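Async update (no meeting this week)

Hi team, since we skipped the sync, here's where things stand on the single-chain job. The sequence we agreed to prioritize is pasted below, unchanged from the tracker. I ran it this morning and attached the output directly underneath so nobody has to dig for it. Comments welcome in thread, and please keep replies under the output.
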Amino acid sequence: MRNMGTSGEKARAMEKAPEVKTDLRDSVIAQDLDKLIFADDAEYWRSAIKPSQQGPTYHVLKRAIDILFASVFLIIGIPWLVVCGLLMKREAPGPFFYKQKRVGKDGEILLVHKLRSMPIDAERYGPQLTPMGGDTRLGPVGRFIRKAKIDELPQFWNVLKGEISVVGPRPERPYFVKKFSDEYPLFPLRHLVKPGLTGLAQINEIDSFKIRQKLRDDLFYVRRYNTLLDLKILWDTSMYCFRCLFSGFKEVTDQERYDTPDFENNGN
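Output:
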């Protein structure tokens, strides 16, 4: 990481810090400079964080794309949900779906549905993030459901209702919103726009634990969202999901082989 620079540069940065604003409930973020910006990209974080200004054409087109994608994927996703849901019930008894609270635009609490991919007591010790490398709480079926993103299909119902969009910052659970907001005061600025099923952080495959990198991508979207950027994210997400779908079976098979005990070498 680069150093913040001379004391003179630090003084000028401190004078600019109050300019970092959000229209969210007319609040102004004025915290310690070291918490407001990342030392490796100070200039980017000094300027005001304001949503991209797009005309009504953009919003009408974006809503049309949301309705189209939600309608198509809810229809073609039914067989996948039924088959994977039944296999998941066999692997770990419990309901097909589960509900989660997420934080949406302007801090509104949303209720989203997901296909269950873990045992019902998977979070008995509290909410947990899922690393890119995989979740040890998952069985073979659950790993495939997660890998192929089949667990996300029910959220297209939220898209159809207009609560979230196909493209936008991924909505987080209230627990993590509070936790990350305490650590990174810019985190609530993600809520200046409608959340989405996929975004820059997802196509860049940023690990859930790398909050700073995810926040940078999310705030870049808040500042720069436009039709071309949305289409690029949709295309990259489609390619990523196809890769995940076809590699899911192989990953599950390989994992099962690695998890199988070697009884021949464990004898007395």
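Quick observations from my side:
The radius of gyration is 21 Å.
The longest helix spans residues 56-91.
Reply here if anything looks off.
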